[in-house]
Amino acid sequence: MTKVYNTESLHRERWHVTEVDQLAVQEYSEKFGLDPLLARLLLVRNIGDGQDEDIWGFINPPENLLTHYTDITSDDDLSNAVTRIVTALREGQKIMVNGDPDADGISGATILVASIRELGGQAFYEFPTRSKEGHGLQPRIVDDSVRLGCRLIITSDCGSKDVESVDYANSQGLDVIICDHHVLGKNLPKCHALVNPHRRSETTFARGLSGAGVSYKLALAVFDAMGITVSSEFMDYLLALVALGPISDRMSFLNPMNRILVREGVRALNATRMEGLRALKEVSRSNYTELKSREIGRTIVPRLNAPGRIGDRDEGIPDSRIVLDLLLIGTGSQNAEKAQQVMEQFSAVLELEKKGRAVSPTEALGEAAVVDEVNEKRKFITSKIEDEIDDLIQTQVDPSVDRIIIIRGRNWNPGVIGIDTDRLKDRFLRPAMILTEYDGSDYIRGSVRSIPTINMYAIIDRVGEKFELANGAPLFQTEVDTQFGKRIINAFGGHAQACGFTLHSKNVPLFLELVRAEMSELPLEQFEYSYEILDTIQFHQINFEIVKKIDTLVPYGQAFEYPIFYLKGCSLSRGRAFGNKYQEARTPHVEFTVSESLNRKGGNGRRLDSVGFGLWEKYSSLVNTNPFAPFDIIFFIELVKKGRGRQARDMLRLNVLDIRRSEDTHGIGSRKRKRRRKKKKSDPQMADSVSNTSSGNPA
Fold first, then answer.
1. Is the pTM of this model over 0.90?
2. What does the pLDDT average to over 224-246?
3. Within 13 Å, how many C-alpha atoms sit on residue 149's CB side?
4. Which of 81, 500, 525, 586 has the greatest count of CB atoms below 10 A from its CB?
5. Statement to judge: residues 613 and 645 lie in one domain
6. Could you give the count of Cα atoms lying within 13 Å of 640 in the half-sphere of its Cβ?
7. Domain boundary residue, one of 459, 494, 527
8. How do strand 530-536 and strand 14-19 relate by DSSP bridges?
9. Distance CA 687, CA 682 (A)
10. Same domain for 599 and 639?
11. Helix (H/G/I), strand (E/B), else coil: 179
12. Which pLDDT value is given to residue 534?
């Protein structure tokens, strides 16, 4: 059982019900034609800072943002990229697409491969073996490109800092187009074109795109340059893929361009007839009535990520290529390369494709099932590491003083330590770091996760700069093998709240000293964050109508989270623990029912099914020890299906985030949120969250 540590000295988690001016609610409701609940939500979140134009753009993003692409990079870079791709297509040159091994990179790579093949081109695809190579453009992939006779490499969601690997590609006679969204480093790669929104001096909506978003916009530019009109079916396929990027990479959902891409992409994903996408949805075993952005993040995204985290073809474990194989099914494009790069265990399915026969739903499901099986293996590895972490915490962590939780382990799979780091962060409610060393290697791999109020990427980046200034050499590096011997390449990247790195073991003591020094400079207030509750709610107000109202402002996601409600004085039934088979001994989830308090008069005896992810331990200590007490809960309202086939029906479910005894009012407060009407800002991203300043790839 997980130990509970006192973290009060650094962090006091609070429930806050935000106060807003009721006259302002009425004004917004009338002006924008919104239900008062949604008007309140806009005010609570400071959407548009009171600027009518920005608020209208948030509610109904302009349709042209779906296809606008001129600001995804500098004018010269866009022209160079499009011209080079068109030349490759017209001359029949082979193209290698190098994706980053996560959901964003895979989605972007699929968009590029499918689009190139739709235009009659030859596209191969590769991903780094995350457990051995990490992220980005790797020398091995350059070697593979040369072996296959490729003349051009296009990256997806990576490459902006891969200076050494691009130099290596150039030395092998390959042109490289970097297609990425991460913040640029001081030294830019000498590539044929750098397609990255940060190449433009002005800030535009494109600055907030995911890697898949940049890949999608580049593909549209190539279609236009070749005078090809994209069919509605293929456009919906691209939109379904591009929606996965901002959801998985947690890009800002305040950005109107992301909002319309995700809104239309989720619509397309729900309606898709592409067998690969349909199989992925089915194997994800979602019981939601209709997939929404939040549900996609819980069900589909982990399965997209899993093969990249633990995949290793040398050991017979499918990697990210198996996901791209799956996502291409139904496009009719896999014949173009005659399946040279396809996973061995799916050769039978691919042979059918080579013969021109359409892939059946059963065959697509077979491929999706392997993706799901790899996800199960990932869960097992993650759980095993957590067991070891439990033991190490006793000697390596002092929760009373540590501003960042640091655990050092050995021979842990680097592809999954990010998940365990994330759980450490949730467990101690502060930034966390896992370092792991490996037998036979002088290099240490690290993964960092942070709380919303602290940008750990910026902190680790500053540490790297201080180290280089003092020592005259980069801190974050790793050694890789190429056909011409060993090479040293950059090994740091990520986002504000998720980053990863590699460094030489001899530099670890100084690195940790610098990290702790940076953390000590942060004010204690930065370690405090809270649930922002939209409003208190009465039991009778929880109905299908309120879900319908909330869905008026979809999509919800990073920086525009699904609204949380606060219900006071309710009764909770005895709960049942559940979770995957690897979690039962640690922090499983809980199912229970919520009803009006037995002490409250006038109740109608109505009960609502509820779920609390990761809440079993807290639930047990509070509810199972005193089941007749009244409790307060904060929660999302969800719409799920109950039953199967013709017996299936829609039902409401509460997704409970936290529980307290009703008499325990400690920490429950309110925040006043005044309507602000500022001068029109030059930054059109409408206060994008700090995580939008991404600069690489998280471990």
1. no
2. 96
3. 6
4. 500
5. yes
6. 18
7. 527
8. parallel
9. 11
10. yes
11. strand
12. 93
